[in-house]
Amino acid sequence: MADKKNEWKDKLLYAPKNGYDRLSAEEEAEMNAYCEDYKMFLDRGKTERLCVDYCVELAASHGFKPFEKGMKLAAGDKVYVNNRGKGIMLAVIGSDDLSHGTNIGAAHTDAPRLDLKPRPLYEEAELAYFKTHHYGGIRKYQWVTIPLELHGVVVLANGESVTVHIGDKPDDPQFIINDLLPHLGREQGKKPLNEAIPSESLNILVGSRPFSDEECSDRFKLGVLKYLNEKYGIVEEDLISAELEVVPAGKAHDVGFDRSFISSYGHDDRVCAYAELAGIFAVEKPRKTAVCIFADKEEIGSEGVSGMQSQAFDKFMGDLCEMQGVSLTECFSHSFCVSADVTAAYDPNFAEVYDKRNAAYINYGVGLCKYTGAGGKSGASDASAEVVGKLRKLLNDGKVFWQMSELGKTDAGGGGTVAQFMAKRNIDTIDAGVPVLSMHAPYETVAKLDCYMTYKCMKTVFEKA
Ligand code: MN
Ligand code: MN
After folding, report:
1. I need a labelling partner for 251 at 20 to 30 A (CA). Which of 16, 38, 168, 179 fits?
2. How far apart, in Å, are the Cα atoms of 390 and each of 75, 103, 428, 464?
């Protein structure tokens, strides 16, 4: 038997290989081109609203039309629905009718950030600040002393809405949250990381020039309001009917001498949303209808009208089904969904929180997660062997590099995605996505190879599942 050892090893052992040992030169060129487009997507889509705006622009340029119930649709036609400017759904109509089901890619385009409170503006010690309430899971100490941008909408008293975008253009001012100097940080330094920067201290410095009348009270607050009024027509009460989001400033950048990584704000989950988008754009006349949904609110539990639990998705799919005389439940029961969301990449600096035999690795391709959840799979939809087997076969047949992935050690923590809300609709669903370093940090890092393989995964699912 000894002479056949390698033959048996090759046959029996699962031995994943680094993607760079398998990638062709042609694929590498395509990967680099794909990542340039993806970086543009990151820079244009700093918030869920900006993401949707850019998706609509890209969809229109790829032949997608706004969906209207009752419109005439044939195989190969492309439509989208803009859900309140905060979420978007796209479909390419298949040649099979919807009773055969659809192939769905579900991602989310909201990302952890700081939202302004309804009454944000105050002054203290002749400095003007905005108070914030953080959105999603952040490590608060990471958000101090970094440049910040401000984006969003303000609905004025007359019902008109104005958009605010400050900090992303070369001549724009930016914003900052200050931290204690080390010289005076002795007591702060003794606190646990999670307590050193309390939420109520995440106050953004927005001005220090007083209103000119020295007799006036609230001169520093008024100085800021005067600017907002002159520039946007805003008065203080208008800030109550506003969604103003504070996000890290700066553009997506290549990282490493070899440029193998991209660092940026918001990879979670724009890296999977863009993979889906590019995937559905590449699909022409699929057999089954291909559907993309970019949900909002995933980072706070997929709640709300723009979240994955909203019936906005059922309405769009229901309308499509009704137009073909197919029941929605019939369509869902034959559908297949990849819940495309990021997973944690193994980080040797923090090896203790990973099970290294089940972790996702940088440059090993798209990470498939049978289950997410926390401590005993709680909250996970836990894909069946059949569903994992189906995606595994599809990806192997399509020569897409993939790996299995678990989000950290069983007892280390956990996380969820939109998968459970798709599964609840009686849709076979599995999680798959890009492994990320420093997930939820102001600047997250991903590998270009894994971004590209996630795109290939989504394209394969839309074309072949
Ligand atoms: Mn996510
Ligand atoms: Mn997340």
Report:
1. 179
2. 25, 13, 10, 11
Ion ligand 2: residues, Cβ under 5 Å: 268
Distance CA 53, CA 65 (A): 14
Pairing verdict, β 428-433 and 336-340: parallel
Residue 431: which of 386, 374, 366 has the closest Cα?
Answer: 366
Cβ neighbors of 290 (< 8 A, separation 6 or more) are: 91, 92, 94, 102, 103, 105, 280, 283, 462, 463
Q: Which residues pair with 262 in a beta bridge?
A: 254, 446
Residues by chain with Cβ below 5 Å of ion ligand 1: 268-269, 341
**Half-sphere exposure of residue 232: CA atoms within 13 angstroms, side-chain side:** 23
* Ligand approaching nearest to the C-alpha of 136: 2
Q: Residue 313 has which token pair?
A: 């998705």
Q: What does the angle CA 217 – CA 220 – CA 223 come to, to the nearest 5 degrees?
A: 105
Neighbours of 184 (CB within 10 A): 8
The single residue listed with the structure tokens 């057999």 is 287
Ligand 1 centroid–CA 344 distance in Å is 10
Ligand nearest to the CA of 108: 1
Dump pLDDT digits (tens) for 337-389: 999 999 999 999 999 999 999 999 999 999 999 999 888 898 889 999 999 99
